[in-house]
Design brief:
Largest interface: A-B, 31 and 25 residues
Shape of chain A: globular
Helix content of chain B: under 10%
Number of strands of chain A: 11
Strand content of chain B: over 45%
Distance between the termini of chain B: 41 Å
Structural class of chain B: mainly beta
Largest sheet of chain A: 7 strands, mixed
Distance between the termini of chain A: 36 Å
Radius of gyration of chain A: 13 Å
Oligomer: heterodimer
Structural class of chain A: mainly beta
């Protein structure tokens, strides 16, 4: 089945130690998104890629970066995680950028910062 | 700018009873509306979406929602719930212009009891 895959499902890191979360998709979609979901809160968009074009949300901290080396893979890099960055990180894809397009979500990576 | 208000943070209900999860939105432009479900420790799955046309939208798992433009609402309903419907439900909007940025409500936790 075509899907969005996130690895690992759980990630533990230390305060200030860089960490990378990964997302891959077999849907061949053009757009990939990263959302942050803190406990008992709504998901919040961090940034998205349309093909190779990177689009950062205005309120996304500089501590968060992303890479998309090819259509299938997208990475979220947190350069110096703080305790406040502990959250579920959700990757999503859509075929196009149109606002009627359905976004397909992966299972998420839960990040714990010690 | 768009915003979404989910009026109930938690809804307890007995199995086989009907349920309604309320969602109101605010927007200065036309919107598309979505309902997503999130089971524990999983990503989001699309239940249904309203783009245009009939205001009554049918989705997966027996859910339906009605778009009411005058009341700026998009309430989700199911006539008879099952234990397996226990999950977090998110209402979301995108504008009809710009890029595909989902604005989520805070979520409603549906707890179905035997």
């Amino acid at each position: 089945d075509a899907m969005v895959i996130q690895n690992p499902r759980y990630q533990v890191t230390q305060f200030g130690k860089p960490v990378t979360l990964s997302c891959s998709q077999t849907l061949n979609h053009n757009v990939m998104y990263w959302y942050q979901q803190k406990s008992s809160q709504a998901p919040k968009l961090l940034f998205h890629y349309y093909d190779k074009d990177f689009n950062n949300e205005a309120d996304t901290p500089d501590n968060f970066q992303s890479r998309r080396p090819n259509t299938s893979f997208c990475f979220l890099d947190i350069r110096s995680p703080g305790l406040g960055d502990a959250a579920m990180y959700l990757c999503a894809t859509s075929r196009g950028q149109g606002t009627s397009e359905t976004q397909y979500f992966g299972p998420g990576t839960r990040l714990l910062v010690l | 700018a768009q915003s979404v208000t989910q009026l109930d943070s938690q809804v307890p209900v007995f199995e086989e009873a009907p349920v309604e999860l309320r969602c109101n939105y605010s927007s200065s432009v036309s919107v598309y509306l979505f309902w997503y479900v999130q089971y524990p420790n999983q990503g989001l799955q699309l239940l249904l979406k309203y783009l245009s046309g009939s205001t009554l939208v049918k989705g997966i798992n027996g859910f339906e929602a009605e778009f009411n433009k005058s009341q700026t609402s998009f309430h989700l309903r199911k006539p008879s719930v099952h234990i397996s419907d226990t999950a977090e439900y998110f209402c979301a909007v995108t504008g009809t212009g710009g890029y595909n940025k989902l604005i989520f409500g805070a979520g409603t936790r549906l707890a179905v009891h035997p």
